[in-house]
Structure formats: structure tokens, C-alpha cells
Amino acid sequence: MPEADIALLAEAARAAGKIATRYFKRDLKAWDKPGSQGPVTEADLEVDTMLRETLGAARPDYGWLSEETPDAPSRLSATRVFIVDPIDGTRAFIEGNPTWSHSLAVAEDGDVIAAAVYLPIHDKLYLAGRGEGATLNNLPITASDRVDVTGAEVLAARPAMDPEHWHEGTPPELKRQFRSSLAYRMALTAEGRKDAMLTLRPTWEWDVAAGTLLVTEAGGAATDRTGAPLRFNNPTPQVRGVVAGGRHVQSGLIQNLA
Hints:
InterPro entries: Inositol_monophosphatase-like, Inositol_monophosphatase_CS
Number of domains: 2
Oligomer: single chain
Keywords: Magnesium, Metal-binding
Largest sheet: 7 strands, mixed
Family: Belongs to the inositol monophosphatase superfamily.
Shape: globular
Organism: Maritimibacter dapengensis
Protein name: 3'(2'),5'-bisphosphate nucleotidase CysQ
């Protein structure tokens, strides 16, 4: 049972928030990572170091996969692995937008079994455990029960709405909104505040591992863009996009995708 790991992730996520908020809206060092991998800041690295040391000490037999740690093939032989994004939505963090998060997950043999997504500025802590349901600040959350894709509220970047991605053009009247943090997009979807989220390009595991469990434990569905199950701790730590949401809307989006 994942209860002990959920508690561990929750404590670590709050500790990450204390570090990151010291830097938020301050004059911090930031630079672009090589290979068009986006920005990173000194806050990302300090949070990553703390999480790696804290979680590693608590579970020394678990593997480690983080956006800000050089990848090590030893994780592939571990039964359980931490999958971590120290700050998800770094661009928002740099810009002073509060919708960044800490995303922490434990995967066992490819399936996420414990998850935490924390937004320190809003003090919103989303937690989930396999078979245990999903919560926001200790209260149960449930994904959207909307049936009709037409008019659904969907979190996505603008390019995902391009007609080329859809069999018969973009589904009509989709109400697209955006949040920088993929983990927060998935958390809002799990909470039922949005009907679905999608990202259609290859997606790093650390962005979506925790959110995947939040959505499914909230009664929704989360797959890759083809409708295949999401599996984690892959040799190349990416999945083929993500479509997540209430079961009816999620299925409808998958059916419409080219």
C-alpha cells in the first residue's frame, strides 16, 4: 500500500515550497539549458538537491528520475523510482506568475502508485495513492462528469488546437485555457475544475507522472495521445503526449485526434 510514500511526498513537497518561495519574485539567477530544453534557475537546482537527498535517504532502494539531475541508467533496474520535477512551470516562476508547482511521484514497475502536486503560493496540495483516491488539501476530488466534447473546457497550449491534429478539424467550441505547469493542468482536471487537458508533443515523464495518478484516482482517464496506457521509467523518459480528463470527454478527444 502506498500510504507511507504519499506522506513522504507530501512532506517533501511542502519543504520544496519553502525553498522555492524564498526565490519567488526576487532577483534570481536563471539561464537556458542546452538543446532547447527550456530555462532553469538556482531555485530549481536547490529544490532538486533537497529532494534528492531527502527522498533518497528515506528510500535508498528507489531509483531517481528528475528534470534537473543527470539521468542514470541504474533507475531502469529499480522496482520503484521517484519521478520529480523540482519546479514545474519554471517560465511562470521566473515571470512572477504563481501557477508553478512541485510535482513528485513514485512509480512501481511503470505505474504511478503515489503522487503529490503542490502549489506553494496558493497552498494547494494535491495527493493521490493507487486505490486510495485523490485529494486537495485532504478533501476528496472528482474529475468532470461532462459527456459532450463540444463546449468542453480544455487546458492546452495553442498549437494543440491546430486542425492538423484532428480528423475533422478542431472539435467545435472547445474552450481552451492555458497554465504553464503541466502538473497543475492535470491537477485542475482531476479536481473537475476543467473537463480535460492535453499536450500532443512528446512529453517528459516528470511533467505528468504525478498528474496521471491524480486524474485516474479522481475517476478520470489519462492516456497518451493514441489512447494507449501511460507507462513510466522508460529508457528515454518521455511519453507520446497526454490526454486526460473526465472519462467521456477524454474518450471523445482521443477519438477525434488524428
